[in-house]
Amino acid sequence: MKTRTAALRAAALFALGACAALGAQAWPDKTLKLISPSTPGGPPDAYARALADLMAKELGQAVIVENSPAVGGMVAMQSMARTPADGYTLVIGTAGAVTITPSANPKARYQPGDFTHICQGVEAGLVLASYPGVPARDFKELAQWIQAQQTPPTYSSFAPGSPAHFLGHQLGEALNVEMTHVAYRSSPTQITDMLGGVAPLGFVQTATAAPHIRAGKLRAYASTAGQRSAELPDVPTVAEVGLPQLQTTVWFGLSGPKGLPAPVVQRLTEVHQKIVASPEFRQRMAASGLVPSPGICGDAFLAKITAESARWARIVKATGFAAD
């Protein structure tokens, strides 16, 4: 009797495995949904919509984009963590939502390991900038100006708990000055107040700030990327001005729920890599100030996420920041 029961169980498990394999081979046979953790037109959304358009061509199925900008992408990631692992709903993960929010927001209730991280798609450095009323022409003069103020100046970011927020903390540490953080809820609102001199100094997104920097309405001191930006070739990197510890990029990538079938992950990886290498994708990303980042998939992507999560966790703890 026991032998027969064991045989029946084995047959059932085999059947389930066969069905799962068959389902993976048939994937996709219906419309896919891609969750974008930003408002329409925002940098993550530019990546999401280009990816959706080109994935639809490669997979032969429609790919719709659903915007979910709440709480800096946290709600989008929470939704993804609850999604069935069938490959039909995916998310655009951001550096902030994936590597900072789990440490900075007690309400997140997710960790990077709660997802299948497929590939990083694009990245961009941030820029330390000010409105022209700040009497500093380069980073050396800016550092001297900050240190000379009787009341330390404030610095702004495009979101609380974002890389821009914690880079400002690191800048203050490097200059031995305790500056006050002023958080905005979006890059456009941060830029608006910087242009008006309300927020004199801050780390800003390159794509949003570059036109104002080129027009002389903002002054740039350093880029946080590893190399100078093609949009702002005259702006040195943080490493060049002596602050390599501030080097970071804001990146966006493709992720799904934990437990995606291996054949689906493999197919998505192949498609994503092909898209990232295509001229159309590169042109669309260049228009948004984003740099394609091929080759960061699977284990390499997960290793990067793990390292960055540890970095930001240390800084979150040092600042005592906790999102409300």
How would you characterize the overall build of this protein?
There is one protein chain. With 324 residues, the chain is α/β, with parallel strands linked by helices. It folds into two domains: 27-124 and 249-319, Bordetella uptake gene, domain 1 (D-Maltodextrin-Binding Protein, domain 2, 3-Layer(aba) Sandwich); 125-246, Periplasmic binding protein-like II (D-Maltodextrin-Binding Protein, domain 2). It contains eleven helices and ten strands. The protein has helices at 2-26, 43-59, 74-81, 95-104, 139-148, 163-175, 187-195, 206-214, 262-276, 279-287, 298-319; strands at 32-36, 63-67, 89-94, 115-130, 154-157, 180-183, 201-205, 219-223, 249-257, 291-292. Strands 1, 2, 3, 4, 7, 8, 9 and 10 form an eight-stranded mixed beta sheet that branches. A two-stranded parallel sheet has the order 5-6. The radius of gyration is 22 Å and the shape is globular. It starts with a helix and ends in a 5-residue tail after the last helix.
Provide tags for this entry.
two-stranded parallel ribbon; D-Maltodextrin-Binding Protein, domain 2; 8-stranded mixed beta sheet; 324 residues; 10 strands; 45% helix; alpha/beta
Q: What is the total domain count? A: 2
User: Tally of extended strands?
Assistant: 10
Which radius of gyration do the C-alpha atoms yield?
A: 22 Å
Beta-strand level of the residues, as a percent range? 15-25%
- CATH C-level label of the largest domain: Alpha Beta
Q: What is the CATH topology descriptor of the largest domain?
A: D-Maltodextrin-Binding Protein, domain 2
Largest sheet: 8 strands, mixed
Give me the strand/helix succession. Answer: HEHEHEHEHEHEHEHEEHHEH
Mean pLDDT: 89
Examine the secondary-structure arrangement and name the CATH architecture of the largest domain.
Answer: 3-Layer(aba) Sandwich
Overall, the morphology is globular
CATH superfamily of the largest domain: Bordetella uptake gene, domain 1
Structural class: alpha/beta
Query: What distance lies between the first and last C-alpha atoms, to the nearest angstrom?
Result: 59 Å
> Which regions are unreliable across 5 or more consecutive residues at pLDDT < 50?
10-24
User: Could you estimate the helical fraction of the residues in percent?
Assistant: 40-55%
Oligomeric status? single chain
